[in-house]
Every structure is written in C-alpha cells, then in structure tokens.
Specification:
By secondary structure, this protein is mainly β. The protein has no helices and 25 strands.
C-alpha cells in the first residue's frame, strides 16, 4: 500500500491508502459521506466532510466538485425559494420519486402551435336594383311627360300607366338610369385550431426531506433572477395563453353596373327587344315604342364581394417557474 508524506510546518503526516497516520486526522476515505463540504477530492483522498456526487438520474442540480453542495436545512434556502428540487425533462410528464417525491409544477420551455385555419367567407346580398327614367311623348324627348320606374334585378317591368302622364298611348324613350348598391351580410367566421404540442415536458419535484437528498437546485414561482451561488438558471412555464383566431368575414358592395334591355310588346322575349342602354347612364333619348317594357341585368359579381379572413393571434407561454442550480 503506498505511503504519502505531507509536511505542514512542524507537523508531518504519513498517509497509507485513505487513512492518516500521525498528527491530527484531517482526511478520510471518500466513501464516508456522513457530512459534506464543497471541497475537491484528490486521487481518492478527500478532505473530511467531502460530498458524494451521485445525484438521482435526470437531475439538473448536482453537488459535484466545486458546486454549492446539497441543501440540508430550510435555513440554507434564500428567502422565497423552495428546495432542493429536481428538474426532469422528458417527452411526457415524469413521476416524482424518492427522495424528490413532492410534485411542484409541470411546465414547458417551448411550444409548437400552427396558426388557425379560417373558414371560407360568403355574403348574403339584398341584390342590385336600377331606376329607369323615361319620356312619354314624342321621339325627340322634348314634348310629353317625364317619369321613372324601379327595375328590380332580372324582372320584366311594364312601364305604361304612369299616373303623372295623361296620354298612355304615346311613345316611350329612355332618358337615363341609376343603380342602387345592395346591402351585404357577411357569414360568420368559424376558425379551427390544432392542439398545441411541445418537444419536452419539464417536471419539478421537491425533496420531502432535504437531508435525504444531494440536490443543489432551488425553485420559485415567477421569472426572476437567480441568487448567488445558485447561478445556473432555467425558466419553465406552467400554462399557455392561446389567442389564435381569424379576422371576421366582411363584404363590400359592388358597383351594380349592368345593362337595361328595352322591349316593345307584351313581354321581354327576344322577339320584342328594341335596344339596350347601360346602367347607369344619363342624358339619353332611346326610343322603344308604345308598349314599353324593361329588364335590368347587373354584371356578374356586381353585387357583394367577400373579403377573406386572415389568421390572428398566437400561443404564448405563461405562469413561469424559475429553477436555479449551484
């Protein structure tokens, strides 16, 4: 068995294995862990009270060489902190096992949350309409009586029998037209979201008996700075705030521009058609006989146009817990 000599002033120590021979007994075998200190071991020889470095599997707080050492009593804790704790990370929630048997919190460090999917938007429209102004009298639109008649979309409207005009047998001429845009009602937006996922789950477990653990990690609710000497810091979040959604559907009324077909006869069939005018138009004089009818047809898409929704919001982490290890 090798023998080592250490000369400290007037005292000389001879060490055999891990036992001091001569002088005061200041060293012991490393396996004696009844008491601990943070001093380092040298070639199997440890100062008295040296710590074992065997922490439970998965712990982020080791009392290894040069570390803080275990928290033995509540008096060792900074005010407002709990400990010792173990910080386990895994794909799922971990079980708290002895000596870290008390569950403190379950949280996450990051999440994956795609934006919401927005439903298609549509519009209910009251429909476009037009008002035709016409002249009942001579073809030159100078002698006779002026009148107007509403033209609902796609209806065949008889223009005769105008109360303000006495001669119902006169010829008719179109002199102008206006259009009325519709009222639009947008569909309700119904966004869908997928579940939030995360790569790892953090489980914080507290030692029920500080003296039975070798951990050197402490924890506290909130996102706070670590007190010395527990300077290895991690923040986990125990909740999420999901604000994902979509903007509301909206609609914009179209111009309601189109065509007014003019007919002479008892209906609006092709055989009775006398001409067409644009809607809207002004200052015209388009003659179309003595049995006048008119039909207004708006251009395709002239009613209401839906505006698509866009995703909004996000998933954020909340309710933090700070873990600090020495």
């Amino acid at each position: 068995m090798p023998t080592r000599a250490y000369d400290y002033g007037h005292f000389t120590f001879f060490l055999v294995g891990c036992t001091a021979i001569g002088g005061a007994d200041e060293f012991q075998d490393q396996t004696d862990d009844d008491e601990c200190s943070s001093q380092r071991c040298d070639d199997g020889l440890c100062p008295k009270n040296a710590c074992s470095t065997d922490d439970p599997p998965g712990s982020t707080g080791s009392s290894g060489p040069g570390g803080q050492g275990p928290i033995e009593t509540p008096a060792d804790l900074p005010p407002g902190w709990i400990g010792p704790v173990m910080h386990n990370t895994s794909p799922e929630v971990s079980e708290c096992a002895e000596p870290y048997s008390d569950l403190v919190a379950v949280g996450y460090t990051s999440v994956s949350a795609p934006p919401a999917s927005c439903s298609a938007c549509s519009c209910e429209s009251s429909g476009c309409s037009a008002t035709l102004s016409f002249w009942q009298g001579e073809d030159d639109c100078e002698e006779g009586c002026a009148a107007s008649r509403a033209l609902p979309q796609d209806d065949c409207v008889d223009l005769r029998h105008v109360a303000s005009c006495s001669d119902n047998g006169a010829k008719y001429s179109a002199t102008g037209a206006t259009v009325t845009t519709p009222t639009c009602a947008a569909s309700n937006q119904q966004p869908t979201t997928v579940d939030v996922t995360w790569a790892t789950v953090s489980t914080l477990c507290l030692a029920a008996d500080a003296g039975a653990s070798t951990g050197s990690c402490i924890a506290r609710a909130g996102d706070v700075d670590c007190p010395a000497p527990f300077l290895a810091r991690a923040v986990v979040y125990t909740n999420i705030v999901d604000t994902r959604g979509c903007t509301e559907c909206s609609c914009a009324p179209g111009s309601c521009g189109g065509i007014i077909d003019l007919y002479e006869g008892n209906g609006c069939g092709d055989g009775h058609k006398k001409g067409s005018v644009a809607a809207p138009f002004a200052d015209g004089c388009e003659s179309f006989g003595d049995k006048p009818r008119a039909r207004y047809t708006p251009d395709p898409g002239a009613g209401c146009t839906a505006t698509p929704s866009s995703p909004t919001g996000e998933v954020t982490l909340s309710d933090p817990y700070t873990v600090c290890c020495g």
